[in-house]
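Limitations
The C-alpha cells in this dataset are predictions for the assembled complex, not deposited experimental models. Users should treat interface geometry with appropriate caution, especially where small molecules or nucleic acid strands are included. An illustrative entry is reproduced here so readers can see what is and is not provided.
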Amino acid sequence: MQYEYLEHTADIKFKAYGKTKEELIINSGKALCNSIIDLKEIEKKGKGIIEIKAESFEQLLFKFLQELLFEIDANELIFSEFQIKKLTEKKINEKTEFKLIVFCLGEKINLDKHEIKTEIKAITKHEFKVEKKEEWTAEVLVDV
Amino acid sequence: MNLKEIKKGIYEIEKQGKMLVPARIYATKKLLEQIEENAIQQLVNVAELPGIQKYSIAMPDCHWGYGFPIGGIAAFNSENGVVSPGGIGFDINCGVRLIKTNLTEKDIKGKEQELLEELFKQVPAGIGSKGQLKIDKRQLIEVMKKGSKWAVENGFGWKQDIENTEENGKLENANPKKVSEKAVQRGVKQLGSLGSGNHFLEIQKVEKIFDEKTAEKFGLKKGNLTIMIHCGSRGFGHQIASDYLETMENAMKKYSINVSDKQLACTPINSKEGKDYLEAMACAVNYAFANRQLITHWTRKSFEKVLGKKAEEMEMKLVYDVAHNIAKFEEHELNGKKEKLLVHRKGATRAFPAGKKENPKSYLDSGHPAIIPGSMGTSSWIVIGTEKGLQETFGSVAHGAGRVMSRTKAIKTKNGEQVKKEMEENGRFVKSRSPKTLSEEMPEAYKDIDEVINSLEVSGIAKKVARLTPIGVVKG
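Predicted assembly:
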C-alpha cells in the first residue's frame, strides 16, 4: 500500500508507507495531492522542484509537505508523481543536516477537468508521526 | 478526569497538577457526553499556560483541535501572559456575517436555483477559480492595514457595513512587515473567495423569533430572508499561522515555558515573537473582514441581477459580522478590578451584552448579535450575550454545531447526490463545487445545533433572539 486515509472527526488524516525514506516522501506527497484532486485526473505536463534542508528526517518530511501545499495553494499546481533527485544526510559538528531535492510532476489546476475535493489549510504537527518498523510510515493530519 | 456539575449546564474540573486555573465546560449532559476525552485533556493542558485567568473554558460544540480544543476560550494577563497561535486556529478570523432583506420566500419562488447559480458564479469558491478581483502586493498591504474599509473605499459595499462589523472591520495593530512573502503570495490570489470545508454562503428565512424587541433592533422579522456568509482569511491566514507556530516552537525554550503538549507553542505577549505574531495576526484578521465584505458586495449584485431590484430597495443591510477565531485585547472585570486581558477565542464567538463600549453604536443598548451557524441544511441562530456570560466566559459563546462524524465515515454513509436529493426533498436548494463536499458536510456529521444553543441558554451565558432556517446553500 502507498497510502491510506484514517478516521478523524474534523480533519483529514493520512498514513503513508515506504520501504525506503524516498518512497515514504513520494507516497506522502501523493496522499496530500490526492486529498485535493484525484490523482487519476492529473496529467504530467510539467515539473516543479522542491528543495528542503532540515535537522531531522521527520522535520524534512514535514517541511516538504508544507512546501508542496504552498505550490498547490499559491501557484495553483497539482502533482501526481514525484522523483527524488537527492536525499542526503550529513553530520556537521554534532548536528545532522538532511537535504532533499524532489521533482514534482503535474499540471496547473484547471476546473474544467479537475474536481476539487477539498482545500487544505495547513499541514499540522497534531499527531504527526514518522516511524520505521518493518517499513517507513508517516501519519499526517492536515487542517481542512 | 473528574468533571463536576457545579451549576446547571456548567461542569468544572478543579485545579490540579500543573493547572493554574480550573477548567470549565458549558454544555448539557447530552453534549458533554459527545466531547472527546482528548478535547478535555487539551482543555486541561491550556489551564497550565502562564498568565491564564479565571478558567480554561470550553463551549458545548467543543472538539479536539490543534493544541487548544476547538470551541475554547482562554484569557491571559496582558503583562505576564502568553499568546499562542494554536489558541486562535489556522483560519485566523474565520467568522460569520448576516445580511438581512425585506424579501420573503414568495419573492424568490421559482428563482431559488437561479440565485444560487448566480451567487456561485459571482463568488469565487477558491483554488482554481477565476476570481473577480485582481490585486497586486501593494494593494494587499492596504487590505492588511484597512480591512473592510479597503473594500468599501474601493466600491465593494456600504459605509454602514463597516459600523456593523466587529472592530469596525479592522484591527489597528496590523503590521504588514511581519507577514512572510509566502503568505503574501497565497493572499494575493485568494482575496474574495469562499474556500471549502464547512464554509458556506446561505440564503435563509427567519423562522422563529424568541425576543421580539431585540430582533426588531437587529432588523429581523419573521418570514424575511437573510443571507449568511461563513469564511475566513484563506491561505493568507493559514500561512501566517503556520509560520508563527514554527517561530514560537523554536523560541519557547528561550522563555523557559514548559508545557505538557508541544502544540501549545506560545511566547510571552510582550516578547518580540509574541508582538510580531499579534501584528501579523491582525493583518490576517483584516484580510478576512475584507474578504467577507467583498463577498457581501457580490451577494448584493447577484440578488440585484436575478430579482431585478436594487440592493437598497431590498434593504440588504449588514446585521453584523463577528469573528470566531481571534485573539484580542479586552478589558474585563477580575476580582472587582478592571484588567486588560488578551482573550483567545478559537471556535468561540464574542457575545458582549448591552453596555460594553465595543458594541457598535446601533447595538449599544441591546448588545451585538452573536451569529452561530448550524451545519449545512440545519438552522442557524442569532443570540445575545448576557452579563453572566461576560463575567464567566469573557463574553463568549459557541460558534457552531461541531463535527461528530469523520469525513471518511460520512462519505461511506451517504454519497453527495443522495445528500443533495434529501435536501431538495426538504425544500432546500444546494450548489457546490464537488458532490464529495456535500457528503462530508451532511447534517448527520454534526452535533445538534439546537442542543448547542440550549446549552448556552441553560447555563445562562446567552439568550435566543432568532432561529434562521436554510433555503439555499452555496458550498465552496
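Some entries come with short summary sentences. For this one: The longest strand of chain A covers residues 77-92.
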